[in-house]
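Subject: for your reference before the review

Hello V.,

The reviewers asked for a structural picture of the protein, and I figured it would be easier to keep everything in one thread rather than splitting it across files. Below is the amino acid sequence we used in the manuscript, unchanged from the supplementary table.
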Amino acid sequence: MQRPEIDQTEHDVELKFPRANIIAVEAISRVLASSLGPASRDKLVVRQLETREDSSAAPSFDDYVATSDGATILDKLPLGHPIGRLVGGILGPEQTDEETVEGAEIRDGVSTTVVLLAAMLSEAESLIERGVHPYTVCAGYMRGLDVALRTIDEETRELSLPPKAHSAEWHVARTALTGNDVGGFAERWAEAAVEVVETIGMPDEVTMAVRATRTGSIADSRVIHGAVLDRNKLCHSEMPTRVTDAKVLVLSGYDSGGGLQDPDTKKIRVETDDPETIAGIDEPLVARRRAVVETLVAAGVDVVVARQGIIPAYQQLLVDNGIVGIRGVNRIDLQQVALATGAALVQDITDVSEDDLGRAGVVEEVTGDSRPGSKRTRRMVVFDGCSDPNSVCIQLHGVSGQLAEQATTMLRQAAAAVATAKGYGGAQPGIVPGGGAVDVRIAQRLRHAARSEGSRVGLAMEAFADAAEEVPATLARNAGLDALTTVANAKTKQDSEGSTAGLILPQGTIGDVLDAGVVDPTANRKQIYVTATELAVLVLRVDDAIDAEFTETAPDPDDAIYDDVAEQQQDHLKRNPDSHRFDELSD
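And here is what came back from the structure prediction:
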């Protein structure tokens, strides 16, 4: 299907709807299209190059990323156009939390969704130019979506494949990693993703952490059945740096209960000249500290992980009793330690029992990278060997900066794909043939349904079919193949050999994609079609843009906006200021 050229001539400056919005989506699609599939290419998204400019103000820095991950590209693009922001909504709500986890909310299938969306809008534009009303196109697309979803259900297989060296779950992860193989270790990344899901189920920003360090080689990366505190270290140099069979206490409060601190005594004032009284002022606090630490020792605590601080007096008591203390742990890391070790989140340091404690095979402080511009080295505390963790950590070696961010997103997408295929998180379990095979089958079913429709709605369903074929066509173009020939060969082979015939890359052949291990989670494929169709309908339903800016001075905070009747009453009160003084009215 040929894409329409965008006319930039002067008479076309003021574009009519929906063409103006279609052009915006097509522009985004042209950026993302080459990032689709195993033969994808990277995009360099530059947001800022301050180091190229002379400036004596704040320290300058560059902000750019080179990646082939469609979600990352879309996330970094400056989508100023209103429709562009709607497309950006594919990534989910904008993350504003200061503790946002890299890649946690970015899902797989973004490039495919945008390519399908742009193709649907391009086909819709052709129909509208031929006199088909946008409402009719929308109706046809919604009927087409029903056909597409039924077809995906029909093509769904259980999470199993013909006998292979790796499991079906591994092939799901490996397919999700296509085009995003950091370091050429996709097979290892796929193994890590499967191990994560087998341990914790559907991963999220708390149950799956990714820590990256420049030291070592990518081949040394591994899944830690526990947690890693990346920016924390032991709070005292005399504490043991390694504890085996550790019992872990997690303090999560936001006051003195969130750490080992004294109660707030700022509001207490004592006036005395007696030296003995002055000397005894701290005795209750000293006694309280000893009682707290004695409680920890009695419960068998080996490691204390605190949300708040651990004051020096407590640090010395911990050292004297051989207990490790870690302070100032952020909210997400604290939850990861608790989930990994099975510890309860304790609020009151005076009420600790053995039942509150978690377990770890080993807790160890390790040395990481050297800090940029500093002689000091980065330290991390590793909780490993947890028997039944509900949170794990992938420790990456040999990566940093943008490469680490890309690897983190890639691993989260692969693990989420495996979990989705297994039906975790309420997703429909199962897999469908990849390599564009299911898209070709959807197009065939859409054309058959369109013929039975026999109306202008049928034309829209035919257009939907053409748009579905744009997915395998884009895969072919990115691999240097002829798109029309590739799609035609896939149709022919499906007619003769079944619906599992699709494009196998990098070989560039049409064959059985299930046998090749190219598979996608059913739920993900459904989500692609649902999202693309709903966005296409949304764009097509927009027929005008209204400037909603206030052109007059905004009202003061005490003012109100009245309807006509209320405004008349307000004018009356202004003309008769005493008419509302009820204390002066008489019978």
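For the response letter, the relevant points are probably these. Confidence is low (pLDDT under 50) at residues 1-15, 95-99, 557-566, 579-587. The radius of gyration is 31 Å.

Happy to draft the paragraph if you're swamped.

O.
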